[in-house]
Amino acid sequence: MAIVIPVAVAVVLIAAALALFLRHRALRQRFGPEYERTVDGADSRLAAERELSAREKRHDKLDIKPLPDRLRERYSRDWDHVQHEFVDRPEDAVHDADHLVTSLMQDRGYPTESYGQQLKDLSVEHGRTLEHYRAAHEIDKLSASHKATTEQLRGAMVHYRALFDELLSDGGQTRHAPA
Questions:
Q1: CA distance 122 to 110
Q2: What is the spatial distance between Cα 167 and Cα 71, in angstroms, rounded to a whole number?
């Protein structure tokens, strides 16, 4: 018994450490740069990982779906229109790009009531392009008060385009709720 109990405890501790390591690695791979951003903003790595796991669980309950071809084509035409609009009315084009991305998110099944929740929901499948959305949104807010430069507005269009393309093409990691 003196040998069995310490060996059993050691095995349990090793298994627990391995499980934590694998969870850490899976979340880091899944969320990409969003993993570090969440860890930096949390009280601890464990709290951040709980937050990311909660995002996954919420996301699993959403009805995220691919777009039918006709809607995909309409969104492509709408994006082309927004890009052409940029030449004469860059601020309006950036606002329209924001609305178009939000509409696309909604048609895919993402809730769009709150920008903060949008970021959390998108982070599960689109963590690698989420920083584009943040940057574009900040520039859009600047342009609402006419404080954005033309170069910033151009950058916002590029940033919106990154997320738009990924959402339109069903990019990200497809994830289905367990059956």
A1: 8
A2: 12
Close Cβ partners of 8 (under 8 Å, ≥ 6 residues apart): none
pTM of the model: 0.79
Query: Cα 164–61–20 angle (5° rounding)?
Result: 95
pLDDT in tens, 91-121: 999 999 999 999 999 999 999 989 999 999 9
140-161 tens-digit pLDDT? 999 999 999 999 999 999 999 9
Angle at 21 between CA 15 and CA 12, to 5 degrees: 15
CA 67 to chain centre: 18
CA pair distance 114, 22, nearest whole angstrom: 32
How far are the Cα atoms of 3, 63, 128 from residue 31, in angstroms, in the given order? 42, 20, 7
Task: Write down the domain spans for the chain.
Answer: 3-60, 69-169
Q: State how far Cα 91 lies from the chain centre.
A: 24
